[in-house]
Specification:
Elements (H helix, E strand, L loop, with lengths): L2 E6 L4 H10 L8 E8 L4 E7 L2 H9 L5 E9 L14 E3 L2 E6 L5 H10 L9 H16 L3 H9 L7 E6 L5 E5 L6 E4 L4 E4 L11 E4 L5 E5 L3 E4 L5 E2 L3 E3 L15 H7 L1 H9 L3 E2 L3 E2 L8 H7 L2 E6 L1 H18 L3 E5 H4 L10 E7 L5 H10 L6 E6 L5 H5 L2 E4 L12 H20 L4 H22 L2 H11 L4 E6 L4 H15 L2 E6 L17 E4 L6 H12 L5 E5 L9 E5 L8 H19 L18
Parallel strand pairs: 18-19, 18-20, 20-21, 21-22, 23-24, 23-25, 25-26, 26-27
Antiparallel strand pairs: 1-4, 1-10, 2-3, 2-4, 5-6, 6-7, 7-8, 8-12, 9-10, 9-11, 11-15, 12-13, 13-14, 16-17
Helix pairs in contact: 1-2, 3-4, 4-5, 7-13, 7-14, 9-13, 9-16, 13-14, 13-18, 14-18, 15-18, 16-18
This protein binds fructose -6-phosphate (F6R).
Length: about 600
């Protein structure tokens, strides 16, 4: 939520800021802005509503010469989308960009108004700017001390970068709630919410920890922890390739990420499947084996697409490993009093590892007596990985499209491997783990095959693009796939879509059926096929329009269309069947001319509650 970049450089800062902030647009794209202290010690601020391209156009028209600056792309929380509410916010000499929410901003605003401060926006960030200015003028302390005094008064999350016109040689970054990363250059240094923004200038990074404050100058970086002790944080060299951040031959990141899935799954599997039935995760601490061995129940918490992946895993844990598994939306999990089942392992599932709801659920779970906690995550440097007992990486690679695709299929791949690992540890049924390992090896090739059927899906998309509502149906472990398919359609094509377990149709939604609400049904060959066939008949006999995604033949019915898909093994069928639904949503959104990579009102990494 919201992207921050900042730097003290040798190079011209304005070009750097706009190049970098453009790369963080996935974190919010309501409005964007930048501020530079120029060579004559003036603050130059440019802000615009809309995408970063608007900021680029406006900035390119000005001649800005300076070496220190900050930029921000916003996902509105406090105050509507407007130029006044766009960051950076300024209080006289103090300039602030911020990511987070200040819960007690109304109280502080009143206090500062009484002190004579006049607000020009509705944001909580302007409260921070004025508070810093107030504190600075009270005692004439150093900027670091001023920030420390001020953040003691803030309730909520305040990851921010502060710049002071009266001391334009340094930036101060404070981390709370969402990530801030320092990029190390040669006699220049950078700050950003995500390394993606800095990969074109450096590969050397320092990740700030919660509560850290960093003083960043051209030739020097000093970091203090939450207790104000000077601390050395580890420098890491990123192995992310800058080119992987580009769209290449694709029109959208989402399209690229859909087609990348065979490769990302191969990467997820690589060096992890051993000796026919053994699964090995090098990043998993050895003690995890004891915890898994003793686990009698599993609780998974996640949000959005990750939640849908967890719902598939529930079926796998219960039907393959005989372990009862509950799944809960993270924000619900931490909003209620819970009873923890005996010998229960908590699993959090997240692409970003920064989702506030999931992080809060993890922190809440630590008070509840779980056997241990494990996160399955795509980002090794994320808060979830840092705060969990154990972690497994999904290795999807960078996912930039706001709608998750390859992170979903790699999460499922890891979850199925984990099922095999736990079966092995418990020495339950080696045949099953062997079957899982064998079948997972076939997965990339199966997905290649289905991607080649894209032309069929494109033709269905052309027919459905003008629909206003759609229903998605699936049974068993395909019901969560229906949920994920419907979520993709809502997110990027703005078509209202609801998912139901096929058997639930007759309990209400059947009343909606007519030829204007297409039904997408996932009905592969499995033990539930006959039941699904009955549901198809119920829909057709009521004049409904149905599209059945299956590897099977069906008796002809009026208004029934079968999308014949290649064969896939039942074990991996959920991972396979999401692919045509991702393509369907993508091609419908493409036909409708929607902003596929940056759907309205959304952001990729949801770091607010
Ligand atoms: C949907 C989507 C979101 C995320 C959700 C959780 O396409 O991307 O629903 O899945 O915000 O995000 P992570 O997995 O980063 O915790």
């Amino acid at each position: 939520m919201c992207g921050i970049v900042a730097a003290v450089t040798q190079r011209n800062i304005a070009d750097f800021l706009i190049d970098s902030i453009k790369k963080l647009e996935y974190r919010g794209y309501d409005s964007s802005g930048l501020a530079v202290i120029d060579n004559k010690n003036n603050i130059i601020r440019i802000r615009c509503v809309g995408k970063v391209n608007e900021l680029i156009k406006k900035t390119n028209k000005k001649k800005i010469l300076g070496n220190i600056g900050v930029a921000h792309t916003r996902w509105a929380t406090h105050g509507k989308v407007s130029k006044e509410n766009t960051h950076p916010h300024i209080s006289s000499n103090i300039i602030v960009v911020h990511n987070g929410i200040i819960e007690n901003n109304s109280v502080l605003r009143l206090f500062l108004q009484k002190k004579g401060y006049i607000f020009s926006s509705d944001t909580d960030t302007e409260v921070i700017a004025h508070l810093l200015h107030w504190e600075q003028n009270k005692k004439k302390d150093s900027l670091k001390k001023v920030i420390q005094n001020s953040i003691k008064q803030l309730d909520g999350n305040y990851s921010m970068v502060v710049m002071d016109k009266n001391n334009p040689s340094k930036l101060i970054a404070a981390r709370s709630g969402s990530p801030l990363i320092i990029g190390l250059g040669i006699e220049e240094n950078f700050i950003a919410s995500d390394q993606i923004a800095l990969l074109h200038v450096t590969k050397r990074f320092i990740y700030l920890e919660e509560g850290d404050i960093a003083i960043v100058k051209k030739k020097e970086i000093n970091i203090f922890n939450k207790d104000n002790f000077f601390i050395k944080r580890k420098e890491i060299i990123s192995n992310t390739e800058y080119k992987s951040v580009k769209k290449g031959k694709y029109r959208h990141y989402m399209e690229k990420e859909i087609y990348e899935q065979p490769t990302s799954i191969l990467n997820t599997l690589k060096n992890r499947l051993k000796n026919k039935n053994k699964v090995y995760f090098s990043e998993l601490a050895l003690e995890a084996n004891d915890v898994f061995y003793n686990t009698e129940n599993i609780q998974i918490v996640a949000c959005g697409t990750s939640y849908n992946a967890a719902m598939v895993a529930k079926h796998w844990f219960e039907s393959l490993a005989n372990i009862p598994c509950d799944v809960e939306i993270a924000s619900e999990f931490s909003s209620r009093k819970l009873t923890v089942r005996k010998k229960s392992l908590l699993i959090t599932l997240s692409q970003s590892g920064e989702t506030a709801d999931t992080l809060l659920a993890l922190r809440y779970s630590k008070k509840l007596g779980y056997l241990g906690n494990l996160t399955i995550c795509n980002m090794e440097s994320s808060s979830l990985v840092k705060e969990s007992d154990f972690y497994i990486l999904t290795k999807a690679g960078l996912e930039i499209g706001v709608a998750s695709t390859k992170s979903f299929t790699t999460q499922l791949t890891v979850l199925l491997m984990l099922v095999a690992k736990i079966i092995n540890l418990k020495k339950e049924n080696n045949n099953i783990s062997q079957k899982i390992v064998q079948t997972l090896n076939l997965l990339p090739m199966r997905i290649e095959k289905i991607l080649k059927k894209n032309y069929i899906i494109k033709s269905v998309a052309n027919i459905l693009a003008n629909k206003k509502n759609m229903l998605y149906l699936g049974r068993g472990n395909q019901y969560p796939i229906a949920m994920e398919g419907a979520l993709k359609l809502k997110e990027i094509a703005y078509i209202h879509a609801e998912a139901y377990p096929s058997g639930e149709l007759k309990h209400g939604p059947l009343a909606l059926i007519d030829k204007n609400i297409p039904v997408i049904m996932i009905a592969p060959k499995n033990s539930l096929l006959e039941k699904n066939k009955k549901n198809i008949k119920e829909i057709c006999s009521r004049g409904g329009l149905i599209y059945v995604f299956s590897d099977q033949e069906f008796d002809h019915e009026d208004n029934m269309n079968v999308i014949k898909l290649p064969y896939v093994e039942e074990l991996i069928a959920p991972i396979f069947y999401i692919i045509p639904l991702q393509l369907l949503a993508y091609y419908i959104a493409l036909k409708k001319g929607k902003e596929i990579d940056q759907p309205r009102h959304l952001a990729k990494s949801v770091t607010v509650e």
